[in-house]
Amino acid sequence: MRAEAVVLFDAKDAMAPDPADELNTVSAAAGGDRGAFERLYRRHAGRVHGLCLRLTGHRETAEDCVQETFVQAWRGLDRFQGRSAFTTWLHRIAVNAALSRRRRLAQTLETGAETAPDEAERAGVDAAPPLDLEAAIAALPDGARHVLVLVGIYGFSHAEAAESLDIAVGTSKAQFHRARRLLAARLELPLEES
Amino acid sequence: MKETSRRSLDQRLAALDPEIATDRDLWPSIVAKIGASDALEGSLDAIPPEAAPEFSAHTGSAHTGSAHTGSAHTGPARAGSVRRWPLALAAGFALVALVGALFGWQVARLRPATFASSPPPVFTKPQPTDRDPFAGPETESFRATRASLEQTYQQRLALLAPATRHRVEQDLATIRAANADIRKALEADPQSAVLNHLLASTLHEEFDLYTAVIRNSAPAVPRSPS
């Protein structure tokens, strides 16, 4: 799992805010200070939006997800006990919001979200021209994309991803492997075997 | 071959920026939602202390068993010292039943006519009947559950502070106006999946509003000594 570990560390280290300042800001927000909460929003909105957008694949749904995430965070701040980083806690709220909206959208519009990518997978990805990485990720089957986004980009461990997605850890690993294989083929890139 | 194309997939994944800026500033919308939530929660100060809330406004999330934080009502959700879950639970069951019925109704409305064994379940123009024009599925259980929920909502609405009651009524009026607008649009495009989805969403919003009011204004059942 060498390659995965590299991704994990990059993703987590890149965003870590000053822990003391973060803690003070969270405490102030938990006490009802909206200015402090706005600072948290400004600090984390881009990352939460990136997560929501990559999980839902839909811009408007992602914006709804961001709003819901921060409203839920405001309401639940008094239950945040600091056992995990605020970012981790916020991301879990965002994942729940994104997946519930994604499911609702798929059910309502009867899109069969897994169908199209699976067909692409069966048909063989070699026939199509290479895509850019974001487009290729967006075209992945839901299950593979969700795990790849959480583990590969946002630094979740497989255990965290499995818990967030309500799947087994082994399934998370299998979906991650599937996603990397599909992406590598689609983008015609070398794949470092893990 | 360019340097970038030689980079492995894992290297490219690692190089992706986890942040993606939103097209617009979402903070004002978030503040508005937080404000509406706090207004509803703040109104509960008008209710005697023994009926203090233990559900956060609108979400209905429970805090049973946790200590009272004493945080200001304009802040994040508080924990309460009394148990009010029976009525909230009933409202929750009603909501689940209504949402389930709504989902079935919505699927039926969007089902292609070729797969329907009965006449196509497309949008029909509201008829001048004694039914509420803001209607949902035409089933007895749906109507009964909805009527019960509405009745409880009306009773609980009376417990809210006047300003909050006014705000809630304004919100409901907005939802119903949206419903009317969508219905009008559906007359021109009855099979529009987006419009049918939006129509069902307005009903979801209405029921969410009812349950939020019920959950946050219900009289408390004192916690048993055990």
Describe the 3D structure:
The complex is a heterodimer of chains A (194) and B (226). With 194 residues, chain A is mostly helical. Chain A has ten helices and no strands. Chain B is mainly α. Chain B is 54% helix and 0% strand. The relative contact order of chain B is 0.16. The model of chain B is unreliable at 1-5, 42-74, 78-85, 113-129 and 221-226 (pLDDT under 50). The interface between A and B is large, with 56 and 50 residues.
What distinguishing features does this structure have?
heterodimer; A: 194 residues; mainly alpha; 75% helix; globular; disordered N terminus; B: 226 residues; 7 helices; extended; disordered C terminus
Q: How does the overall form of chain B come out from the CA principal axes?
A: extended
SSE arrangement of chain A, N to C: HHHHHHHHHH
DSSP helical segment count of chain B: 7
Largest interface: A-B, 56 and 50 residues
The average pLDDT value of chain A, as a whole number, equals 80
- Radius of gyration of chain B from the CA trace? 23 Å
Q: What structural class should be given to the helix and strand makeup of chain B? A: mainly alpha
Distance between the termini of chain B: 74 Å
Largest sheet of chain B: none
Q: What value does the average pLDDT of chain B take?
A: 64
Number of strands of chain B: 0
- The stretches of 5 or more residues of chain A where confidence is low (pLDDT under 50) are 1-14, 112-129
In helices, the fraction of residues of chain B equals 40-55%
Uncertain segments of chain B of ≥5 residues (pLDDT<50)? Answer: 1-5, 42-74, 78-85, 113-129, 221-226
What is the strand content of chain B? under 5%
